[in-house]
Write a structure and sequence with these properties.
Layout: H1 5-13, H2 39-43, E1 51-55, H3 63-72, E2 80-84, E3 97-102, H4 105-115, E4 130-133, H5 140-147
Antiparallel strand pairs: 1-3, 1-4, 2-3
């Protein structure tokens, strides 16, 4: 599985500290049709989503490069429990998007505020990073279930 090392360990033991352990959508009160951040809903606990789709990643980025970029901006492996960056096997280029599950809604908000509109890529690129809530998969277990049977992962 092309995911962070910590995820592979968790996958093998079948345990997670994910606040949405069942992998279900956030809270019933959250407007799950709205894929943009409402930090007030996160702050008040009405929105507990933790999974993000990161878009407009430069295609020359590798998994390691992107994880290093996240860590350099204060969002290292202790703040996420799932990471998936799809790669085109023929060209060896990433597809320009990734899925990340953060350990809490407040951590997801901080990640969002750091990387939405981000453009200081290690590799020169004019791409502006864009974030949305992952939909329909939310939570660690939802992503593990989604990707565990894929042959390309």
């Amino acid at each position: 599985m092309k995911c962070h090392r910590r995820v592979q360990k968790r996958c093998s033991y079948g345990k997670s500290t994910d606040s949405l352990g069942s992998g279900s959508s956030a809270t019933p009160e959250a407007d799950n049709n709205n894929l943009s951040l409402n930090s007030e809903n996160v702050r008040t606990g009405r929105d507990r989503r933790t999974s993000l789709m990161v878009r407009n990643i430069p295609n020359k980025y590798t998994q390691r490069m992107l994880l290093d970029e996240f860590a350099a901006m204060g969002h290292g492996p202790t703040k996420m429990d799932f990471f998936y960056l799809p790669i085109d096997f023929k060209t060896k280029a990433c597809l320009g998007y990734a899925f990340v599950n953060l350990i809490s809604a407040s951590t997801a908000t901080a990640f969002w505020q750091t990387f939405d509109g981000y453009s200081k890529w290690t590799i020169p690129s004019k791409k502006l990073c864009n974030l949305t809530w992952s939909d329909p998969h939310q939570g660690f277990w939802a992503h593990v279930e989604r990707y565990r049977t894929r042959v390309d992962v």
